[in-house]
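Hi all, posting the design record for the shared folder.

TITLE: backbone redesign
STEP: 1 of 1
STRUCTURE INPUT:
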């Protein structure tokens, strides 16, 4: 995304918060491809016959974002951080609904297992492990959420956390990512 788009995103977020009805639609046109890429990356290893598609995730995300107008938007990174958190919630909710509907269904949604160095983690198990990590190491859990669920790069993660009032360096993000992956691998690898 070029510098013009980055500033446009921030400007549209502010206009939307201020009540401009068309700002969310303009914002959606600017970020749709990136959000769809995030959702597709998150689900690239989905099981056959999976009922939730990346486009549906983005559309559900859009509906949830429409209710988030009052957020004090500061930058593009904050937007993608919130999008990552909402995508996580959408995937977990979908897995829980499917599990409730079919008790023999594993709840597996094609998560990029390579990112965590585990084989085919169940999204519900990842969510639970990430919640346990957040209880002990909240910043590290935020890094995982941004990188894993949001598909953000290390540099974008620095921006997202900095906009959210948690200024960190690139080396800190890289260290947090290594630590979190190892911690989650231990948690998820013992099932």
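Okay, here is what came back for every position:
SEQUENCE:
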């Amino acid at each position: 995304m070029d510098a013009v788009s980055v500033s446009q995103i921030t400007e549209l977020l502010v206009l939307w918060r201020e009540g401009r009805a068309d700002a969310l639609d303009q914002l959606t046109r600017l970020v749709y491809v990136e959000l769809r890429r995030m959702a597709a990356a998150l689900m690239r290893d989905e099981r056959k016959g999976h009922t939730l598609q990346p486009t549906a995730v983005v559309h559900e995300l859009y509906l949830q974002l429409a209710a988030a107008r009052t957020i004090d938007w500061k930058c593009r990174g904050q937007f993608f951080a919130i999008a990552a958190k909402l995508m996580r919630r959408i995937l977990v909710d979908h897995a829980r609904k499917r599990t409730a509907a079919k008790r023999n269904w594993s709840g597996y949604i094609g998560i990029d297992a390579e990112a965590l160095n585990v084989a085919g983690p169940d999204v519900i198990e990842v969510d639970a492990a990430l919640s346990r990590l957040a209880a002990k190491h909240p910043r590290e859990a935020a890094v995982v959420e941004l990188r894993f669920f949001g598909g953000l790069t290390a540099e974008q993660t620095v921006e997202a956390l900095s906009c959210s009032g948690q200024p960190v360096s690139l080396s800190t993000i890289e260290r947090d990512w290594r630590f979190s992956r190892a911690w989650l691998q231990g948690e998820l690898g013992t099932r």
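COMMENT: The chain has one domain: 3-188.
Let me know if anyone wants the other runs.
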